[in-house]
Amino acid sequence: MTSIISVANLSKTYASGFTALRDINLEIEQGEIFALLGPNGAGKTTLISTICGIVNPSTGTITVDGMDIVSSYRTVRSMIGLVPQELSTDMFETPWATVNFSRGLFGKPRNPAIVEKVLRDLSLWDKKDSRIMTLSGGMKRRLLIAKALAHEPRILFLDEPTAGVDVELRREMWDIVRELRANGVTIILTTHYIEEAEEMADRVGVIAKGEIILVEEKNELMRKLGKKQLQLQLSAPLEGIPDALSGYGLQFGADKSELIYTYDTRAERTGITTLLNDMRDAGISFRDLSTIQSSLEDIFVDLVREKR
């Protein structure tokens, strides 16, 4: 696919001496949903703010659709919509007025049909003439998305888009994001909700201490780094793991009547058949077995722990 955003050797050090970003290199592909994961203070917001031209980089270059964000700032900025974490908007305005105003900020001509579509798509049409202060938290969050979409951007940044909203609304917003992607909008989201990335993203990037430590297609990431575990419910508890089984790296589960065998999903042989044969030869029988696969959350936690 074609890259729509290219970040090369990007670093950001503030006047205080704090380095928020270190030598970031990143390519965002046109039309994808890219999830940027990282703990608090990892540099997620600084990175997207720099790409959007809100924060000035210390070193490095950023291009959007082949244009430098500094020399072609006005053109680049008109291609980008940003939904910030903070619920900051004029509480005395109405959704209709504030979305119209946001469109005008980018020099776009008045177009009531587009504003109406945006408000309808985000289930805000019935509240178009209400004071923003009267809207629920979820509605205010959707209104931020509406403002970001008012000028018809090709790229949408969502900084913690579902923070503080309930599960039902979160899933509604996931549907909105998928529809935007289907219409050709490139989506970059930061999130603390691992299931959000696992549900939606095409690719995942992990940032920790201002450095990108991994970028991978979500499915490939889970194939490469995800572990599978075989859980064996034993017919009788064991005092200890027999020497004959020491080469399998077995661990006890919740108690000594459960054995857990972890294996590599990439290996040609999982070793399960050999393990079961060796267990039988050792006189160990089991009454049930099951397998579990690592989630994206497990992988993320492991990666960040290694970075520390």
Helix content: 25-40%
- Rounded average pLDDT: 86
CATH architecture of the largest domain: 3-Layer(aba) Sandwich
Backbone shape: elongated
- Number of domain modules: 2
Regions with little confidence, pLDDT below 50 for 5+ residues: none
Return Rg in Å: 25 Å
Structural class from helices and strands? alpha/beta
CATH class of the largest domain: Alpha Beta
Strand content: 25-35%
What does this structure look like?
By secondary structure, this protein is of the alpha/beta class. It has two domains: 3-223, Rossmann fold (3-Layer(aba) Sandwich); 227-293, 2-Layer Sandwich (Alpha-Beta Plaits). 33% of the residues lie in helices and 29% in strands. Strands 6-7-8-3-9-10 form a six-stranded mixed β-sheet, sandwiched between helices. The protein has a four-stranded antiparallel β-sheet with strand order 2-1-4-5. A four-stranded antiparallel β-sheet has the order 12-13-11-14. The protein starts with a strand and ends with a helix. The relative contact order is 0.13. The mean pLDDT is 86.
Keywords:
4-stranded antiparallel beta sheet; 2 domains; alpha/beta; Rossmann fold; 6-stranded mixed beta sheet; elongated
Secondary structure elements and pairings:
Layout: E1 3-13, E2 19-29, E3 33-37, H1 44-51, E4 59-64, E5 67-68, H2 73-78, E6 80-83, H3 95-105, H4 112-121, H5 137-149, E7 155-159, H6 167-182, E8 186-191, H7 194-200, E9 203-208, E10 211-217, H8 218-225, E11 227-234, E12 251-252, E13 258-264, H9 272-281, E14 286-293, H10 296-307
Parallel strand pairs: 3-8, 3-9, 6-7, 7-8
Antiparallel strand pairs: 1-2, 1-4, 4-5, 9-10, 11-13, 11-14, 12-13
